[in-house]
Design a protein that fits this description.
By secondary structure, the chain is of the alpha+beta class. It is built from 7 helices and 4 strands, in the order ααβαβααβαβα. Helix content is 33%, strand content 14%. Helix 1 crosses helix 5 and helix 2 runs antiparallel to helix 5. The structure holds flavin mononucleotide (FMN). The site of flavin mononucleotide (FMN) has 11 residues, from strand 3. Flavin mononucleotide binds next to strand 3.
Amino acid sequence: MIMVKNSCYKIIKSRKSVRNYKRGAKIPDNELNKILNSARMAPSSCNTQPWHFIVVRDENLKEELSKCAIKGTRINKWMVDADIVVVLCGKPHPFLHRGADLLGRDCHKLDVAIAGEHMVLTATELGIGSCWIGWFSEKKVKKLLKIPSNVNVISMITFGYPEQDGIIEEREFDGLRRDLGEMVSLNIFGNKGVFFE
Ligand SMILES: Cc1cc2nc3c(=O)[nH]c(=O)nc-3n(C[C@H](O)[C@H](O)[C@H](O)COP(=O)(O)O)c2cc1C
């Protein structure tokens, strides 16, 4: 068997949400470029690439974004310490995504989420920590960053160097995630597969 140093599986096992960042530690441009390019190469429905990424590095804007959490909470206060916050925007295709919507398929959000996870995994490979941010008021973020009304804010992701060195290393998920047998069926929903017992 060929051993690949940074195999995809190993990177997936190393990723964890990082909420403590080294303040002022800058991600070099070439690495930021690699992270953004990995999103660019993501698959999307009909190759529509319905995304736009806003890289927020301005200290005041990061502070304001951290205040866009759900009313009355400051759960994401720590966001200000991350070097950058990438705001993942989605612009549904006027024909293809509207058509998918009629079938109840919200493909453009899936597309943007896949691109976001590409960034997260590339960052992990580079030793850069990240955390998805889903608890925010879209209305407030749109107003703050002057995002047009036909563009949605799907999510945000913080990126930066973890405060604690060595935090990006493989970990075991037993106890952190439900068992595979609980989340996989064989052929028909609910059928237990013999593979996972
Ligand atoms: C779509 C999404 C939204 C999330 N929103 C937040 C958030 O607003 N604040 C936060 O601290 N963590 C947020 N998280 C991180 C999750 O809490 C975290 O992924 C989960 O607890 C599993 O931990 P792990 O990422 O370290 O494996 C979010 C994750 C996802 C995928």
